[in-house]
Amino acid sequence: MDFLSNFLMDFVKQLQSPTLSFLLGGMVLAALGSQLQIPESICKIIIFMLLAKIGLTGGMAIRNSNLTEMVLPVAFSILLGILIVFIARYTLAKLPKVKTVDAIATGGLFGAVSGSTMAAALALLDEQKVAYEAWAGALYPFMDIPALVTAIVIANIYLNKKKLAATAESSLEESLSKQSVAAGEYSDPQNYPSTRQQYLRLKQRPENARVKIWPIVQESLQGPALSAMLLGIALGLFARPESVYENFYNPLFRGLLSILMLVMGMEAWSRIGELRKVAQWYVVYSVVAPIVHGLMAFGLGMIAHYTTGFSMGGVVVLAVIAASSSDISGPPTLRAGIPSANPSAYIGSSTAIGTPIAIGVCIPLFFGLAQAIGGI
Length: 376
Description:
Layout: H1 2-16, H2 18-31, H3 40-63, H4 71-90, H5 100-111, H6 115-127, H7 140-177, H8 179-182, H9 195-203, H10 213-222, H11 224-238, H12 242-275, H13 281-308, H14 312-323, H15 330-337, H16 343-373
Helix pairs in contact: 1-16, 2-12, 3-11, 3-12, 4-5, 4-7, 4-13, 5-7, 5-16, 6-12, 6-14, 7-9, 7-10, 7-15, 12-16, 13-14, 13-16, 14-16
Keywords: Membrane, Transmembrane, Transmembrane helix
Transmembrane segments: 20-38, 45-62, 74-92, 104-125, 137-159, 281-304, 351-373
InterPro entries: Sbt_1
């Protein structure tokens, strides 16, 4: 009962917080047909500053921390990023009217991380004066990159197998229709190529070559979100950015986050219309998946808490980034890596429903769980 009351109180606080209230405000403005526009160039600057700040925080913390403490949370982050994609592949992809390649892309986006959602969670923990490892934000790329790489690889393997099967079937039909002619080219009919032999020949064709991993990783690293994050981590590690951090990045963090939430709210509403064009199961997935993914991460975080002393605040951060879905770096990476997937499905699922659920439900849920356990 205490957990439920704490959850409801935290949920109301989240509704009143700048993070979620600006997100909902953006959705209301878009629903009312407001012509308010924030230039894309300004949004890019805001995203850079938010992620650079998180990266700087993580880099400075890593510089002053024991790296062995990070091993288990990092390993769990990688595992979660990969596992979330496979869950979508074998759950969402099996539902009616859901295309497999769209389901895989959706899993990749939900396995990747939302920098804005993570920033909202960190802001809440700071407001509540809850201690957490300053390097917790640096777990972002360890979950984000494996998820995107896994999704693109699995999707391309699936598409190649599908193409191979279709080509083999077409070739078999053609060979059967011309069998009387083709058989005359062989002195012994037993030497005529079998279906298995034709399949193996098709499989050896260049278009069925294995998907290359490094270009996908490189594209993810070169994306605007991870570039800003990794730059901040590097500067925090190898430079002394404390003065500019305290006087510029840290004071502006919450104000810039509120503007980004307003933009995301307007974007979320516009994507709802696109989501209606695809299977309704995406709506169900977008509501359930963030909670399930976050609970998985919370459980793994508790293992790290009891074995390595990972803080409860850090457990909340791990759960929230697992519950989040990428809204910055993920979409362009998946557009390039899985061009045949429908953006209305995976971007609509993430932006229109996944992000509001992650911010409005999952952050207070996992914060309340940590309070119920008694660690904060």
